[in-house]
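> forwarded from #structure-qc
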């Protein structure tokens, strides 16, 4: 019996999760970078220049 799996495009046996995984990783990476930059921005806005560091 043929087992049907989730596919991104019917007829192509590529699971949708394989396509979505890089997007999830990119979103998580962007969120981490955003939180880091936001913390630096808030420190600069508060006048705490010691909290800022250039990479």
């Amino acid at each position: 019996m043929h087992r049907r799996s989730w596919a991104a495009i019917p007829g192509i046996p590529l699971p949708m999760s394989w396509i979505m995984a890089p997007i999830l990783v990119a979103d998580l990476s962007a969120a981490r970078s955003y939180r880091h930059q936001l913390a630096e921005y808030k420190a600069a806005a508060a006048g705490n220049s010691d909290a800022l560091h250039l990479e």
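QC bot note: The two ends are 57 Å apart (CA to CA). The mean pLDDT is 78.
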